[in-house]
Amino acid sequence: MYFGTIKFKKKTLNQILLWIMLITPYTIIPLVNFSILPSVFKYIPDLCWLFLLLCMLIRTTKKDFDVKFLSLFIGVFFGTAFFLYFMNYQSLFYFLWGLRNNVRFYVFFLSVILSFREEDVQEYYVFLDIFFAIEVLAMFVQRLVLDYKGDSLGGVFGNDSGCNGYVNLFFCIYLAISYMEYTNNRIHLKAFTIRIVLMLILAGYAEIKFFYIEFVIILAVSLLTTEFSLKKLIIIAIAVLALDIGYHIMLQLFPGSILDGNVLLEYGSSVRGYTGTNDLNRLYFMKKINTLFLVNPFWILFGLGMGNCDYAGGYSFVTSPFYEANQNLHYTWFSTTHMYLENGLFGLFFLFGFFALIILFCYKRITKENHEDVCRLVIVCAVIGVMNLVYNNSLRTEAGYMLYLVCAFPFLRNMESKG
Predict the structure, then answer these.
(1) Does this model's pTM top 0.90?
(2) What is the spatial distance between Cα 341 and Cα 352, in angstroms, rounded to a whole number?
(3) Is 90 exceeded by the pLDDT of residue 123?
């Protein structure tokens, strides 16, 4: 069948499973959050990635150097984490749950590379356009009719506290894609302008202050990775006006949300913690964690063991004693603090190193024929990944599938043959 100029082709089993996983943050998770589906449905993607992992292990597939290196990088980390767990052994269930919460995104990433086609990428862009329209409508209804705002304003993503983490990541990715589409004449200036103005207004309604910083960084990186043109000047002018509109809307609803550099730095690095209750903070966590928990060089390097600080609401057999005793530190609110506790500096090296490798390999591929646009897009998305590792825990939730999918695009096998 056709949607516009896109032909939706018949899918293989692996492709169907990947599509189930990639639409999970847009469909299954919201339906669970709105209590339309029972919570057990959010574990459907786990069945998918377990099957895909089995396929990768029993099936040999030719890979280029970059994909082999990324596979090795991922495999070494999780293999080492498995070995080291026996030096901090508590429960096999803790380890398996911690492994699940980390490895699923990388299995998804590698499976997309092996199974997706360029047609799937184009279909995904169409899906995002449709979803953006629905999300915009839902957020305006929630704000203007139901009077939701701040952390409870998530549109399709729900109204639970923290739902705007999904909104933030989605807006970041959609902004990067919209820039690529406009600079390559796939959408008109009017459509691009409407998109960014709507995103900034809705980010203001949801009090996603960090999105305004991300917005500037995303456009700055996007502009730096493309050649100078008149379109760049137009984008800069429109971005300044759109930022001003969105920021003033946020200030009207939340007068204390002032984007001052010194205030934001103090907020993110305060020794009093994120909530001011001596918990952990985005930029100030290592010293406190080292003082309280990682009290020797080995633990600083490798942490307390994957899963030994993890939890699952309603499932006590995978909720660690460490979480029960220290959940008030709010270390699960940020990907970096959680990873540092469980896997030390080695874990942080893996988290940031993955995106660094994506940037490096995309930069290397940027001159390939028919490859330039998607490589520039993924460089921006890797930067988005780094920012969100520090900002919140969205890359440990199902929202992570949004980003890891796009990061796989330059390495798809059928795109390789065109390069």
Answers:
(1) yes
(2) 16
(3) yes
